[in-house]
Amino acid sequence: MKRLQKCCCCASTRTGTLITGGLGIVLSIATIITVWVVERHRISFKTFIFGEDFDKKLLSLDIPRIILTINLCFTILICALLIVAVHKRRSWLMLPWVVLGIVLAIGLLISILHTSISFYLHDTNNEVEKYNDNILATVILIGGLIYLCIYLYLWAVVFSHYLDVRDEEERGRYRKAPYKR
């Protein structure tokens, strides 16, 4: 993979990495607030492993919300670690975000495809409801893929900065240019 030199054609990869870490924290906090404020019947959680009765029992105990909140808290922690790593110029502190980022991208792609296909295949006798499901599936598919592309670009920015910092660490303290000390 070719390294990126700039973020959005005007900022350095360092600035792009800081923005990505801050954006991850803000979006995680917004998602936690949304999950706990929106009414329960508007959010649907399914395990796909157990039966529908077990899913309803889990939902009544708020277990999916708690698990999602814990995951988002770890995301906040890893994004904060990314920001600290940029300031201290430590590549090994960036590594958890880089690994988590590519895993989340794969999960996001699977989620987008599963959700849109589920709406496309939703069986109903009502033509208006079928039409609305098809529109919603198309919006989820196109919007999700656009979001995935933006996410992968930001991941590439962070990965490029990670490689730059790692190479700088490998060169050693005395081999750096004087203006970078």
TrEMBL record:
Keyword terms, alphabetized: Membrane, Transmembrane, Transmembrane helix
Top-level taxon in the UniProt lineage: Eukaryota
Transmembrane region(s): 16-38, 66-86, 93-115, 135-163
PANTHER family: GEO08273P1-RELATED
Protein name in UniProt: Uncharacterized protein
Organism of provenance: Diatraea saccharalis
